[in-house]
Protein backbone atom coordinates (compact mmCIF):
# COMPACT_ATOMS: atom_id res chain seq x y z
CA UNK A 1 0.00 0.00 0.00
CA UNK A 2 1.82 3.10 1.19
CA UNK A 3 5.11 1.27 1.50
CA UNK A 4 6.65 2.71 -1.64
CA UNK A 5 6.13 6.30 -0.57
CA UNK A 6 9.47 7.81 0.41
CA UNK A 7 9.47 8.43 4.13
CA UNK A 8 9.76 12.09 4.90
CA UNK A 9 10.71 12.82 8.47
CA UNK A 10 8.04 14.45 10.61
CA UNK A 11 5.29 13.49 8.19
CA UNK A 12 2.59 10.87 8.38
CA UNK A 13 4.05 7.53 9.52
CA UNK A 14 3.99 4.71 6.98
CA UNK A 15 1.88 1.61 7.46
CA UNK A 16 5.07 -0.42 7.23
CA UNK A 17 6.54 1.43 10.20
CA UNK A 18 3.39 0.86 12.23
CA UNK A 19 3.30 -2.83 11.33
CA UNK A 20 6.96 -3.18 12.27
CA UNK A 21 6.13 -1.72 15.64
CA UNK A 22 3.21 -4.13 16.01
CA UNK A 23 5.59 -7.00 15.25
CA UNK A 24 7.37 -6.21 18.52
CA UNK A 25 4.16 -6.81 20.50
CA UNK A 26 3.89 -10.33 21.86
CA UNK A 27 0.59 -11.92 22.80
CA UNK A 28 0.84 -12.15 26.60
CA UNK A 29 -0.27 -15.78 26.67
CA UNK A 30 1.09 -17.30 23.48
CA UNK A 31 4.34 -15.29 23.68
CA UNK A 32 4.55 -14.77 19.96
CA UNK A 33 4.25 -11.50 17.97
CA UNK A 34 0.62 -10.58 17.35
CA UNK A 35 1.48 -10.05 13.67
CA UNK A 36 2.46 -13.74 13.38
CA UNK A 37 -0.76 -14.84 15.05
CA UNK A 38 -3.10 -13.13 12.63
CA UNK A 39 -4.27 -10.83 15.41
CA UNK A 40 -3.81 -7.55 13.51
CA UNK A 41 -7.08 -6.87 11.80
CA UNK A 42 -6.44 -3.42 10.37
CA UNK A 43 -4.12 -0.43 10.44
CA UNK A 44 -5.44 2.98 9.46
CA UNK A 45 -3.34 6.10 9.51
CA UNK A 46 -4.95 9.54 9.34
CA UNK A 47 -3.41 12.65 7.77
CA UNK A 48 -2.71 14.10 11.19
CA UNK A 49 -0.70 11.05 12.29
CA UNK A 50 -3.46 9.47 14.37
CA UNK A 51 -3.36 5.66 14.08
CA UNK A 52 -6.30 3.31 14.43
CA UNK A 53 -5.39 -0.34 14.99
CA UNK A 54 -7.92 -3.18 14.85
CA UNK A 55 -6.90 -6.20 16.94
CA UNK A 56 -8.48 -9.64 17.00
CA UNK A 57 -8.67 -11.36 20.35
CA UNK A 58 -8.54 -15.16 20.20
CA UNK A 59 -11.61 -15.42 22.41
CA UNK A 60 -14.20 -12.93 23.54
CA UNK A 61 -13.74 -11.78 27.10
CA UNK A 62 -10.02 -12.52 26.84
CA UNK A 63 -8.58 -11.80 30.30
CA UNK A 64 -5.50 -10.28 28.66
CA UNK A 65 -7.38 -7.68 26.66
CA UNK A 66 -6.15 -4.70 28.71
CA UNK A 67 -2.54 -5.86 28.48
CA UNK A 68 -2.84 -6.25 24.73
CA UNK A 69 -4.36 -2.80 24.31
CA UNK A 70 -1.61 -1.24 26.44
CA UNK A 71 1.20 -3.01 24.62
CA UNK A 72 -0.19 -2.14 21.18
CA UNK A 73 -0.70 1.52 22.14
CA UNK A 74 2.80 1.86 23.56
CA UNK A 75 4.48 0.22 20.60
CA UNK A 76 2.62 2.30 18.00
CA UNK A 77 2.99 5.54 19.94
CA UNK A 78 6.77 5.07 19.75
CA UNK A 79 6.69 5.27 15.95
CA UNK A 80 7.90 8.71 14.78
CA UNK A 81 5.08 10.88 13.49
CA UNK A 82 2.31 9.08 15.40
CA UNK A 83 0.19 11.64 17.21
CA UNK A 84 -2.49 9.41 18.69
CA UNK A 85 -3.39 5.70 18.91
CA UNK A 86 -6.81 4.10 19.10
CA UNK A 87 -7.13 0.35 19.52
CA UNK A 88 -10.33 -1.42 18.58
CA UNK A 89 -10.89 -5.01 19.63
CA UNK A 90 -12.69 -7.71 17.71
CA UNK A 91 -12.90 -11.50 18.21
CA UNK A 92 -11.55 -14.16 15.88
CA UNK A 93 -13.98 -16.29 13.94
CA UNK A 94 -13.98 -20.07 14.35
CA UNK A 95 -12.09 -20.31 11.06
CA UNK A 96 -9.43 -17.84 12.17
CA UNK A 97 -8.98 -19.68 15.46
CA UNK A 98 -8.47 -22.92 13.53
CA UNK A 99 -5.86 -21.28 11.32
CA UNK A 100 -4.13 -19.99 14.41
CA UNK A 101 -4.16 -23.45 16.00
CA UNK A 102 -2.65 -24.88 12.81
CA UNK A 103 0.02 -22.19 12.75
CA UNK A 104 0.86 -22.94 16.37
CA UNK A 105 1.27 -26.62 15.55
CA UNK A 106 3.96 -25.59 13.07
CA UNK A 107 1.68 -25.81 10.07
CA UNK A 108 0.65 -29.34 10.92
CA UNK A 109 -3.08 -29.47 10.63
CA UNK A 110 -4.96 -31.58 13.16
CA UNK A 111 -5.27 -35.06 11.78
CA UNK A 112 -8.14 -35.15 9.38
CA UNK A 113 -11.27 -37.18 10.06
CA UNK A 114 -11.24 -39.44 7.00
CA UNK A 115 -15.03 -39.86 7.05
CA UNK A 116 -15.54 -36.11 6.72
CA UNK A 117 -13.73 -35.91 3.41
CA UNK A 118 -16.07 -35.13 0.51
CA UNK A 119 -14.80 -38.19 -1.37
CA UNK A 120 -15.32 -40.57 1.57
CA UNK A 121 -17.46 -43.54 0.61
CA UNK A 122 -18.11 -44.64 4.18
CA UNK A 123 -21.68 -44.24 5.35
CA UNK A 124 -21.66 -42.84 8.84
CA UNK A 125 -24.72 -43.34 11.03
CA UNK A 126 -25.25 -41.81 14.45
CA UNK A 127 -27.62 -43.90 16.49
CA UNK A 128 -29.47 -41.42 18.65
CA UNK A 129 -32.48 -41.07 20.90
CA UNK A 130 -33.82 -38.53 23.32
CA UNK A 131 -34.37 -40.96 26.14
CA UNK A 132 -32.03 -43.48 27.72
CA UNK A 133 -32.56 -47.21 27.75
CA UNK A 134 -34.53 -47.45 24.51
CA UNK A 135 -32.00 -49.85 22.99
CA UNK A 136 -29.56 -47.63 21.06
CA UNK A 137 -26.55 -49.71 21.98
CA UNK A 138 -28.36 -52.99 21.34
CA UNK A 139 -29.52 -51.74 17.95
CA UNK A 140 -26.03 -50.43 17.11
CA UNK A 141 -24.16 -53.65 17.87
CA UNK A 142 -26.76 -55.83 16.20
CA UNK A 143 -26.85 -53.71 13.06
CA UNK A 144 -23.05 -53.76 12.97
CA UNK A 145 -22.87 -57.52 13.42
CA UNK A 146 -25.56 -58.10 10.80
CA UNK A 147 -23.81 -55.87 8.27
CA UNK A 148 -20.45 -57.54 8.95
CA UNK A 149 -22.10 -60.94 8.50
CA UNK A 150 -23.32 -59.68 5.14
CA UNK A 151 -19.74 -58.99 4.13
CA UNK A 152 -19.53 -55.27 4.78
CA UNK A 153 -16.56 -53.66 6.47
CA UNK A 154 -18.02 -52.16 9.61
CA UNK A 155 -16.77 -50.05 12.50
CA UNK A 156 -18.46 -48.94 15.69
CA UNK A 157 -17.56 -45.96 17.83
CA UNK A 158 -18.95 -46.14 21.32
CA UNK A 159 -19.53 -42.43 21.67
CA UNK A 160 -21.53 -42.91 24.85
CA UNK A 161 -18.61 -41.79 26.89
CA UNK A 162 -20.46 -41.96 30.21
CA UNK A 163 -22.25 -45.24 29.75
CA UNK A 164 -20.07 -47.23 27.39
CA UNK A 165 -21.61 -50.64 26.82
CA UNK A 166 -20.66 -51.53 23.26
CA UNK A 167 -17.55 -53.65 23.98
CA UNK A 168 -19.49 -55.83 26.44
CA UNK A 169 -22.39 -56.26 24.02
CA UNK A 170 -19.98 -57.26 21.27
CA UNK A 171 -18.13 -59.54 23.65
CA UNK A 172 -14.72 -57.95 23.42
CA UNK A 173 -12.38 -57.07 26.23
CA UNK A 174 -9.60 -56.39 23.73
CA UNK A 175 -7.50 -53.30 24.14
CA UNK A 176 -6.48 -51.08 21.27
CA UNK A 177 -2.84 -51.27 20.29
CA UNK A 178 -0.69 -48.39 19.21
CA UNK A 179 1.20 -48.64 15.95
CA UNK A 180 3.33 -45.60 15.15
CA UNK A 181 0.89 -42.85 15.93
CA UNK A 182 -2.25 -44.73 15.00
CA UNK A 183 -4.56 -46.64 17.33
CA UNK A 184 -5.51 -50.10 16.07
CA UNK A 185 -9.04 -51.00 17.18
CA UNK A 186 -9.90 -54.50 18.41
CA UNK A 187 -12.46 -56.49 16.42
CA UNK A 188 -15.34 -58.66 17.49
CA UNK A 189 -17.61 -60.63 15.15
CA UNK A 190 -15.87 -58.91 12.25
CA UNK A 191 -16.68 -55.45 13.60
CA UNK A 192 -13.93 -52.98 14.48
CA UNK A 193 -14.81 -51.26 17.70
CA UNK A 194 -13.44 -48.47 19.82
CA UNK A 195 -14.76 -47.25 23.13
CA UNK A 196 -13.63 -44.96 25.87
CA UNK A 197 -14.06 -47.96 28.15
CA UNK A 198 -10.95 -49.42 26.53
CA UNK A 199 -8.83 -46.56 27.78
CA UNK A 200 -10.00 -46.34 31.37
CA UNK A 201 -8.91 -48.73 34.09
CA UNK A 202 -11.67 -51.10 35.25
CA UNK A 203 -15.05 -49.54 34.89
CA UNK A 204 -14.00 -46.12 36.11
CA UNK A 205 -16.60 -43.50 35.25
CA UNK A 206 -15.42 -40.77 32.93
CA UNK A 207 -16.14 -37.27 34.10
CA UNK A 208 -15.03 -35.29 31.10
CA UNK A 209 -16.82 -32.24 29.91
CA UNK A 210 -17.44 -30.60 26.53
CA UNK A 211 -13.95 -29.91 25.12
CA UNK A 212 -12.48 -33.18 26.43
CA UNK A 213 -15.36 -35.15 24.97
CA UNK A 214 -14.90 -33.44 21.64
CA UNK A 215 -11.18 -34.24 21.73
CA UNK A 216 -11.85 -37.90 22.58
CA UNK A 217 -14.29 -38.22 19.73
CA UNK A 218 -11.91 -36.44 17.38
CA UNK A 219 -9.27 -39.01 18.29
CA UNK A 220 -11.64 -41.92 17.84
CA UNK A 221 -12.46 -40.72 14.37
CA UNK A 222 -9.08 -39.43 13.19
CA UNK A 223 -6.36 -41.31 15.08
CA UNK A 224 -7.93 -44.76 15.00
CA UNK A 225 -6.93 -46.80 11.99
CA UNK A 226 -10.29 -47.86 10.56
CA UNK A 227 -9.13 -48.78 7.11
CA UNK A 228 -11.61 -48.51 4.28
CA UNK A 229 -14.98 -48.96 5.97
CA UNK A 230 -18.30 -49.39 4.26
CA UNK A 231 -20.23 -48.32 7.33
CA UNK A 232 -19.35 -46.62 10.59
CA UNK A 233 -21.92 -46.62 13.37
CA UNK A 234 -21.72 -44.26 16.32
CA UNK A 235 -23.57 -45.16 19.47
CA UNK A 236 -24.50 -41.82 20.98
CA UNK A 237 -25.41 -41.12 24.59
CA UNK A 238 -29.07 -40.31 25.18
CA UNK A 239 -30.27 -36.77 24.70
CA UNK A 240 -29.17 -33.84 22.63
CA UNK A 241 -25.92 -33.06 24.35
CA UNK A 242 -22.39 -32.04 23.54
CA UNK A 243 -21.56 -35.27 21.77
CA UNK A 244 -24.29 -34.88 19.16
CA UNK A 245 -23.00 -31.39 18.36
CA UNK A 246 -19.41 -32.64 18.23
CA UNK A 247 -20.33 -35.41 15.83
CA UNK A 248 -22.10 -32.91 13.60
CA UNK A 249 -18.97 -30.76 13.56
CA UNK A 250 -16.53 -33.61 13.03
CA UNK A 251 -18.52 -35.59 10.48
CA UNK A 252 -21.05 -33.21 8.93
CA UNK A 253 -22.20 -35.86 6.46
CA UNK A 254 -23.11 -38.32 9.22
CA UNK A 255 -26.75 -39.39 9.04
CA UNK A 256 -28.92 -39.85 12.08
CA UNK A 257 -30.76 -43.01 12.92
CA UNK A 258 -33.35 -42.36 15.59
CA UNK A 259 -34.29 -45.16 17.98
CA UNK A 260 -37.50 -44.96 19.93
CA UNK A 261 -39.97 -47.20 21.70
CA UNK A 262 -43.68 -47.26 20.92
CA UNK A 263 -44.33 -45.20 24.02
CA UNK A 264 -45.65 -41.68 23.51
CA UNK A 265 -43.21 -40.12 25.97
CA UNK A 266 -40.23 -41.78 24.36
CA UNK A 267 -41.52 -40.73 20.96
CA UNK A 268 -41.66 -37.12 22.01
CA UNK A 269 -38.10 -37.03 23.23
CA UNK A 270 -36.85 -38.92 20.20
CA UNK A 271 -38.46 -36.27 18.07
CA UNK A 272 -36.66 -33.56 20.00
CA UNK A 273 -33.39 -35.42 19.58
CA UNK A 274 -33.95 -35.77 15.88
CA UNK A 275 -34.89 -32.12 15.54
CA UNK A 276 -31.28 -31.26 16.35
CA UNK A 277 -30.54 -32.56 12.87
CA UNK A 278 -32.46 -29.63 11.49
CA UNK A 279 -30.07 -27.25 13.21
CA UNK A 280 -26.95 -29.18 12.22
CA UNK A 281 -28.24 -29.81 8.67
CA UNK A 282 -27.78 -33.55 9.02
CA UNK A 283 -29.94 -36.08 7.28
CA UNK A 284 -32.18 -38.35 9.33
CA UNK A 285 -31.98 -41.69 7.63
CA UNK A 286 -34.93 -43.16 9.47
CA UNK A 287 -36.55 -44.30 12.68
CA UNK A 288 -36.27 -47.68 14.35
CA UNK A 289 -39.00 -48.62 16.77
CA UNK A 290 -37.56 -50.93 19.39
CA UNK A 291 -39.35 -53.00 22.04
CA UNK A 292 -42.42 -52.80 19.88
CA UNK A 293 -44.61 -55.53 21.21
CA UNK A 294 -43.97 -58.79 22.95
CA UNK A 295 -44.78 -61.89 20.95
CA UNK A 296 -47.33 -63.75 23.10
CA UNK A 297 -45.80 -67.02 24.24
CA UNK A 298 -49.22 -68.76 24.00
CA UNK A 299 -50.66 -67.37 20.78
CA UNK A 300 -49.66 -65.53 17.62
CA UNK A 301 -50.69 -62.14 18.99
CA UNK A 302 -48.31 -59.29 19.74
CA UNK A 303 -48.76 -57.70 23.14
CA UNK A 304 -48.30 -53.93 23.02
CA UNK A 305 -46.38 -53.62 26.26
CA UNK A 306 -45.21 -50.07 25.61
CA UNK A 307 -48.19 -48.90 23.56
CA UNK A 308 -48.00 -48.60 19.83
CA UNK A 309 -47.31 -46.22 16.97
CA UNK A 310 -44.34 -44.40 18.53
CA UNK A 311 -42.09 -45.04 15.56
CA UNK A 312 -44.68 -43.75 13.10
CA UNK A 313 -45.31 -40.67 15.21
CA UNK A 314 -41.62 -39.86 15.44
CA UNK A 315 -41.12 -40.41 11.71
CA UNK A 316 -44.07 -38.15 10.89
CA UNK A 317 -42.86 -35.48 13.29
CA UNK A 318 -39.36 -35.57 11.86
CA UNK A 319 -40.66 -35.51 8.29
CA UNK A 320 -42.61 -32.39 9.18
CA UNK A 321 -39.67 -30.79 10.99
CA UNK A 322 -37.08 -31.49 8.32
CA UNK A 323 -39.20 -31.30 5.19
CA UNK A 324 -37.60 -34.55 4.02
CA UNK A 325 -39.22 -37.96 4.12
CA UNK A 326 -38.14 -39.83 7.26
CA UNK A 327 -39.21 -43.48 7.05
CA UNK A 328 -39.73 -46.06 9.77
CA UNK A 329 -37.00 -48.53 8.84
CA UNK A 330 -38.33 -51.31 11.00
CA UNK A 331 -39.78 -52.41 14.28
CA UNK A 332 -37.96 -54.75 16.66
CA UNK A 333 -40.05 -56.77 19.09
CA UNK A 334 -39.15 -57.35 22.70
CA UNK A 335 -37.06 -60.49 22.71
CA UNK A 336 -35.40 -62.03 25.71
CA UNK A 337 -32.69 -63.44 23.46
CA UNK A 338 -31.73 -59.94 22.39
CA UNK A 339 -31.05 -58.96 25.99
CA UNK A 340 -29.26 -62.21 26.70
CA UNK A 341 -27.17 -61.80 23.57
CA UNK A 342 -26.16 -58.34 24.79
CA UNK A 343 -25.20 -59.68 28.19
CA UNK A 344 -23.23 -62.56 26.72
CA UNK A 345 -21.49 -60.55 24.03
CA UNK A 346 -23.09 -62.42 21.17
CA UNK A 347 -25.54 -60.27 19.22
CA UNK A 348 -28.89 -61.96 18.60
CA UNK A 349 -28.55 -61.45 14.84
CA UNK A 350 -25.72 -63.99 15.02
CA UNK A 351 -26.83 -66.28 17.84
CA UNK A 352 -30.45 -66.46 16.74
CA UNK A 353 -30.78 -64.98 13.28
CA UNK A 354 -34.23 -66.51 12.75
CA UNK A 355 -35.74 -65.00 15.89
CA UNK A 356 -38.24 -62.21 15.28
CA UNK A 357 -35.78 -59.62 16.63
CA UNK A 358 -32.91 -61.09 14.62
CA UNK A 359 -34.92 -60.96 11.40
CA UNK A 360 -36.17 -57.44 12.06
CA UNK A 361 -32.66 -56.13 12.69
CA UNK A 362 -31.27 -57.92 9.67
CA UNK A 363 -33.88 -56.31 7.49
CA UNK A 364 -33.03 -52.85 8.84
CA UNK A 365 -29.33 -53.58 8.33
CA UNK A 366 -29.86 -54.43 4.70
CA UNK A 367 -31.68 -51.15 4.17
CA UNK A 368 -28.81 -49.20 5.69
CA UNK A 369 -25.86 -51.21 4.49
CA UNK A 370 -27.02 -51.98 1.01
CA UNK A 371 -27.43 -48.45 -0.15
CA UNK A 372 -25.72 -47.09 -3.21
CA UNK A 373 -22.17 -45.94 -2.98
CA UNK A 374 -19.31 -45.24 -5.39
CA UNK A 375 -17.84 -47.97 -7.52
CA UNK A 376 -14.67 -47.93 -5.43
CA UNK A 377 -16.49 -49.42 -2.50
CA UNK A 378 -18.56 -51.96 -4.37
CA UNK A 379 -17.83 -55.61 -4.58
CA UNK A 380 -17.57 -56.45 -8.25
CA UNK A 381 -17.63 -60.15 -7.54
CA UNK A 382 -14.08 -60.51 -8.77
CA UNK A 383 -11.28 -61.84 -6.61
CA UNK A 384 -7.90 -60.32 -7.37
CA UNK A 385 -5.26 -62.99 -8.00
CA UNK A 386 -2.28 -60.94 -6.98
CA UNK A 387 -2.17 -59.08 -3.75
CA UNK A 388 0.30 -56.27 -3.66
N1 LIG B 1 -35.89 -55.50 21.73
C1 LIG B 1 -35.44 -55.77 22.94
N2 LIG B 1 -35.87 -56.87 23.61
C2 LIG B 1 -35.44 -57.16 24.85
N3 LIG B 1 -34.55 -56.43 25.52
C3 LIG B 1 -34.09 -55.32 24.93
C4 LIG B 1 -34.50 -54.93 23.62
N4 LIG B 1 -33.83 -53.80 23.29
C5 LIG B 1 -33.04 -53.50 24.33
N5 LIG B 1 -33.19 -54.41 25.32
C6 LIG B 1 -32.53 -54.38 26.63
O1 LIG B 1 -32.83 -53.13 27.25
C7 LIG B 1 -31.72 -52.65 27.96
C8 LIG B 1 -31.35 -51.27 27.43
O2 LIG B 1 -30.88 -51.40 26.10
P1 LIG B 1 -29.62 -50.58 25.59
O3 LIG B 1 -28.53 -50.57 26.58
O4 LIG B 1 -29.33 -51.08 24.23
O5 LIG B 1 -30.28 -49.15 25.50
P2 LIG B 1 -29.60 -47.72 25.28
O6 LIG B 1 -30.59 -46.88 24.61
O7 LIG B 1 -28.28 -47.88 24.65
O8 LIG B 1 -29.40 -47.28 26.77
P3 LIG B 1 -28.54 -46.05 27.32
O9 LIG B 1 -29.36 -44.86 27.07
O10 LIG B 1 -28.38 -46.37 28.77
O11 LIG B 1 -27.26 -46.06 26.57
C9 LIG B 1 -30.62 -53.70 27.79
O12 LIG B 1 -30.62 -54.53 28.89
C10 LIG B 1 -31.03 -54.44 26.55
O13 LIG B 1 -30.55 -55.76 26.53
MG1 LIG C 1 -26.36 -47.22 25.28
From TrEMBL:
Ligand binding (ATP): 130-137
GO BP, one annotated term: iron-sulfur cluster assembly
Keywords carried by this UniProt record: ATP-binding, Hydrolase, Iron, Iron-sulfur, Metal-binding, Nucleotide-binding
MIP18 family-like domain boundaries: 15-88
Alphabetized InterPro entries for the sequence: FSCA_dom_sf, MIP18-like, Mrp-like_CS, Mrp/NBP35_ATP-bd, NUBPL-like, P-loop_NTPase, YlxH/NBP35
Gene Ontology MF terms: 4 iron, 4 sulfur cluster binding; ATP binding; ATP hydrolysis activity; ATP-dependent FeS chaperone activity; metal ion binding
A Pfam family reported for this protein in Swiss-Prot or TrEMBL: FeS_assembly_P
TM stretches of this protein: none
Record has Cell inner membrane as a keyword: no
Subunit organization: Homodimer.
General function of this protein: Binds and transfers iron-sulfur (Fe-S) clusters to target apoproteins. Can hydrolyze ATP.
Family assignment from sequence similarity: In the N-terminal section; belongs to the MIP18 family. In the C-terminal section; belongs to the Mrp/NBP35 ATP-binding proteins family.
Name recorded for this polypeptide: Iron-sulfur cluster carrier protein
Species annotation: Streptomyces alkaliphilus
Lineage: Bacteria, Bacillati, Actinomycetota, Actinomycetes, Kitasatosporales
